[in-house]
Write a sequence for this structure.
């Protein structure tokens, strides 16, 4: 029997907490900016709807149906003679590698709360110097805040499903949504809001490249936390009241809303202060602090709130990234939760330590081929392990598991016959084709 269960709302909040992460606020706006806006957003939304939701529903179904950690979940459902499909459950290892650098970025965010409280940079040049100084010059500060970040994540996961994970999400998710909403409503009062809306929603297909399409598809998987058995693991702690269809729609709805609201808000502010949205990865850490400075007193408050919101977004995701490993060690390897948490947190911390060092001047030898260790781990988790996990899940449910059992189970979860057929088609054909394409592309042409 499981130790701990989510309440119905707790499961949705925690899974939305997993989905809403650095991807939504940090990555989505800048890749939308880099790839021309509207047309990119359209491809992203279509992928979320037709591939993302079906895969998310698949993860929730597998977890809820089996009530087991990932490897045992696959093993349990696989028809006899095909039990080697249990290896698909090892997709949780993708979450393990993802966390090594995700926690480094949360460390930066901790530092930015401190920075914006006491020394908000006054210009782009200063903001850039501060950020580059941290990432390429200040190993000690990064090591310290990275440790704090891992410590927070481990403490919550050690607290268990109800007292740790559900509790922190019930606090952080509403707080995060509130902060984004307040800033969004403030942005509504700016003249440049209209410009932000047309940038994000007027599709100009001449600006969309094949590469942009693949980035949009890849991000749709990443933002929903698909393919690393994270939501599957959470779902294994969900009860009978949890319904697959409505939960998937809620989680996706919250995730998409936060990405769009945050994007609109940030573009409005940036246009207003004469900045170009195409600023790449420095958008959150360089452009935004400078924008907040120009906003005056309100900006000072917003700057801190903004980084608190990002920190909450990152932490609630990081927690769900650690849980699959812990659930596996605890349930399948019979290691105590405490040992599983601290053991895996220590290893993740250590790998993250080398990843952050690899970006610091003088440590260039920590590289894999042309890439720094940091970028290599990002590529491995987001562009190889994540798609592989999504692919095996789709192939397993679409081609290996008995279709009628699936249909019978999902009937009790809000799926009508038509919805089931659409879902099954997406899982059997659309998802494998979409995923194989982005995987081959990133293997041959580099990270998306
Ligand atoms: N969805 C998270 C974000 O947008 C990132 C993420 C990808 C993730 N895969 C995951 C989080 C697996 C938790 C588990 O930032």
């Amino acid at each position: 029997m499981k130790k701990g269960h989510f309440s119905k709302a707790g499961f949705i909040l925690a899974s939305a907490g997993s989905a809403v992460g650095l991807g939504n606020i940090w990555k989505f706006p800048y890749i939308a900016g880099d790839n021309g806006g509207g047309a990119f957003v359209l491809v992203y939304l279509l992928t979320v709807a037709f591939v993302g939701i079906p895969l998310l529903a698949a993860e929730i179904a597998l977890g809820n149906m089996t009530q087991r950690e990932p490897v045992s979940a696959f093993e349990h459902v696989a028809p006899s003679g095909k039990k080697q499909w249990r290896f698909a459950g090892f997709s949780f290892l993708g979450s393990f590698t993802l966390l090594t650098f995700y926690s480094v970025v949360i460390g930066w965010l901790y530092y930015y709360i401190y920075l914006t409280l006491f020394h908000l940079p006054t210009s782009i040049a200063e903001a850039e110097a501060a950020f580059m100084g941290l990432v390429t010059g200040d190993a000690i500060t990064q090591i310290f805040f990275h440790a704090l970040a891992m410590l927070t994540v481990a403490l919550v996961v050690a607290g268990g499903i109800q007292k740790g994970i559900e509790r922190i999400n019930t606090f952080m998710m509403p707080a995060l949504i509130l902060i984004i909403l307040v800033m969004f409503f403030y942005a509504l009062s700016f003249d440049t809001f209209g410009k932000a809306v047309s940038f994000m929603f007027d599709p100009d297909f001449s600006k969309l490249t094949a590469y942009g399409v693949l980035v949009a598809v890849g991000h749709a998987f990443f933002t929903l936390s698909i393919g690393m058995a994270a939501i599957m693991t959470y779902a294994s702690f969900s009860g009978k009241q949890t319904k697959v269809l409505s939960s998937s729609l809620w989680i996706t709805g919250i995730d998409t809303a936060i990405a769009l609201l945050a994007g609109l808000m940030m573009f409005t502010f940036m246009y207003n202060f004469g900045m170009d949205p195409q600023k790449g990865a420095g958008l959150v850490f360089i452009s935004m602090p400078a924008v907040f400075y120009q906003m005056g007193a309100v900006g000072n408050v917003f700057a801190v709130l903004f980084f608190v919101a990002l920190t909450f977004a990152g932490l609630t995701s990081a927690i769900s990234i650690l849980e699959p490993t812990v659930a596996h060690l605890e349930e399948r390897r019979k290691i105590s939760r405490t040992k599983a948490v601290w053991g895996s947190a220590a290893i993740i911390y250590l790998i993250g330590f080398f990843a952050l060092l690899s970006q610091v001047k003088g440590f260039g030898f920590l590289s894999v081929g042309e890439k720094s260790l940091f970028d290599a781990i990002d590529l491995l988790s987001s562009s190889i392990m994540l798609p592989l996990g999504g692919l095996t899940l789709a192939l397993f449910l679409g081609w290996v598991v008995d279709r009628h059992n699936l249909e019978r189970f999902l009937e009790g979860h809000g799926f009508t016959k038509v919805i089931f057929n659409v879902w099954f088609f997406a899982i059997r054909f659309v998802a494998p084709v979409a995923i194989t394409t982005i995987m081959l592309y990133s293997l041959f042409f580099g990270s998306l």
Observations:
- The domain at 8-445 is CATH 1.10.4160 (Hydantoin permease).
- The chain has a mean pLDDT of 95.
- Residues 18-19, 21-24, 95, 98, 222-223, 225, 228, 230, 317, 320-321 surround tryptophan (CB under 6 Å).
- The first helix runs from residue 8 to 19.
